[in-house]
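Moderator note: this is an archived Q&A kept for reference. The question asked for a predicted structure of one protein chain; the sequence and the answer are reproduced below.
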Amino acid sequence: MDDTHDLRFPTSIGTSTPTTMSLLGHDMATEMLGQVGFGELCLWLMTGDRPNAAQVKVFDAVMVALADHGLTPIAIASRMTYYSAPDSIQGALAAGLLGGGSRFLGVTEDTGKFLGAALADADHPPQTDEEFDEVARSAIRHAREQHHLVPGLGHPVHKEGDPRTPVVIRIAHDAGMYGPYLRLFEAVGRVHPEVLGRTLPLNGAGVCGAALADIGVGLDLLRGAVLIARCAGLLGHLREEMQRPLGESIYLTVDRHAEYRPDED
């Protein structure tokens, strides 16, 4: 007996019929196109709830802040893959995105999770700056005891301060989206010198993680949000690689300077 007509695969994302297409329960043609911006749609898909204008404003700012960081290993991977396989734009784009990890792109997720764990471990939700400072001290001490870095602190280039950080915080303030994650992130900036014995800047990747968490993006999706932003940046690199290629020069520079050395015992 054929039971395929009884199969159901429920989804709240998108469905189609021969004459219609829907997304998030709304008709694509009559309710979405021209009425929902891409940033709004991304945030809606990630949270399951239609965001308000304030959430979208912060989200858009974060996307711009994370879109590109120059000729990073991620961008170089995309360019080199395109040089090797110019027929595979999807492979070149994927190569860069696959490089998002603990050193590049992952800091946004790591910071959000660090702050989330600290807030969850607090005896009660902090309300005052003093209470946020104490939660931050405890979290930093715990990280130091575990020999872990505090995510969101430090930057290889912007030693005196990441220029993105205060702007993202200001935008969140102005939008009414300055919540517990950003408050705790700023507390980390205030108290870490007394715990670590040195002063480090609050970096842009970290502040973006805090801002995304405050507007409702789940902690397990933070890295995905970063990849959305970086996808745009990588497409820019690939456009430039098509017009003014660097891939061959990078390849030849490395290849012509390769030197054989036997393995050491």
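Archived answer notes: The first strand starts at residue 14 and ends at 16.
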